[in-house]
Amino acid sequence: MIRVLVAAEPIDVAAELASVEVDGAGGIASFIGRVRADDGVSTLELEHYPGMTEAALRRVAEGARDRWGLAAVTIVHRVGAILPGERIVFVATAAVHRRAALDACAYCIDRLKTDAPFWKREVTPEGARWVEARAGDAARAADWG
Amino acid sequence: MAIEMLYFAWVREVVGTGSERIDPPAGIETLGALIDWLADRSAAHANAFADRERLRAAIDQSFASPDAPIAGAREIAIFPPVTGG
């Protein structure tokens, strides 16, 4: 079972985790990304490419399912204005055993960072700035082959 | 054939619009050639596309490199490297 959601609403972790507790899943791993208040960031604005974003997230989820034989994968990403401390991204993977769930979860978040068309803009007291991509993100995604 | 251009993040801000419909002349065959042609449209386009290393693109919602052919493309997006997650 694959679930992909791009939404402006806050991420309901309890509901999302419950949705991957499917039959046959002995191990469930999850990752939550939250907005940091680095350098006085008061708001993080997330822009995306509607249509391509959902398709890209679905490809990441399907890739993880096929590679690790997952019972369920959920990827949720927020867009719009997000405050420090709020969740921006959620990934959960369900497998028969823990190792597949843990590895697949790491794969999803690493690949999402390079494959899904999102752009972050930080709002600070000095003004707003677009976040630059980090070379390390591409390297980590490439490590998965 | 008309192509719907989409711009995101600072590329959208510098170009001054999020989308525009274009009809490139015959002879514009690759994504790189299209960006060269677009850069001649206005000073804003030229500014946005000045540093190609900072640009990424998608043809019909799939990432594409500058040498990718644009024949048959309906929608082409130009944007900075992605920063989600």
From TrEMBL, chain A:
SUPFAM superfamilies: Molybdopterin synthase subunit MoaE. Gene3D superfamilies: Molybdopterin biosynthesis MoaE subunit. GO terms for biological process: Mo-molybdopterin cofactor biosynthetic process. It catalyses: 2 [molybdopterin-synthase sulfur-carrier protein]-C-terminal-Gly-aminoethanethioate + cyclic pyranopterin phosphate + H2O = molybdopterin + 2 [molybdopterin-synthase sulfur-carrier protein]-C-terminal Gly-Gly + 2 H(+). Keywords: Molybdenum cofactor biosynthesis. GO terms for molecular function: molybdopterin synthase activity. InterPro entries: MoaE_sf, Mopterin_biosynth_MoaE. Pfam families: MoaE. Pathway: Cofactor biosynthesis; molybdopterin biosynthesis. Its EC number is 2.8.1.12. It comes from the Bacteria. Heterotetramer of 2 MoaD subunits and 2 MoaE subunits. Also stable as homodimer. The enzyme changes between these two forms during catalysis. Converts molybdopterin precursor Z into molybdopterin. This requires the incorporation of two sulfur atoms into precursor Z to generate a dithiolene group. The sulfur is provided by MoaD. PANTHER family: MOLYBDOPTERIN SYNTHASE RELATED (PTHR23404). Belongs to the MoaE family. This is Molybdopterin synthase catalytic subunit.
UniProtKB/TrEMBL annotation, chain B:
Keywords: Nucleotide-binding. The keyword Nucleotide-binding applies. InterPro entries: Beta-grasp_dom_sf, MOCS2A, Mopterin_synth/thiamin_S_b, ThiS/MoaD-like. The keyword Protein transport does not apply. CDD domains: Ubl_MoaD (cd00754). One of its GO terms (cellular component) is molybdopterin adenylyltransferase complex. GO terms for molecular function: nucleotide binding. One of its GO terms (biological process) is Mo-molybdopterin cofactor biosynthetic process. SUPFAM superfamilies: MoaD/ThiS. Belongs to the MoaD family. PANTHER family: MOLYBDOPTERIN SYNTHASE SULFUR CARRIER SUBUNIT. This is Molybdopterin synthase sulfur carrier subunit.
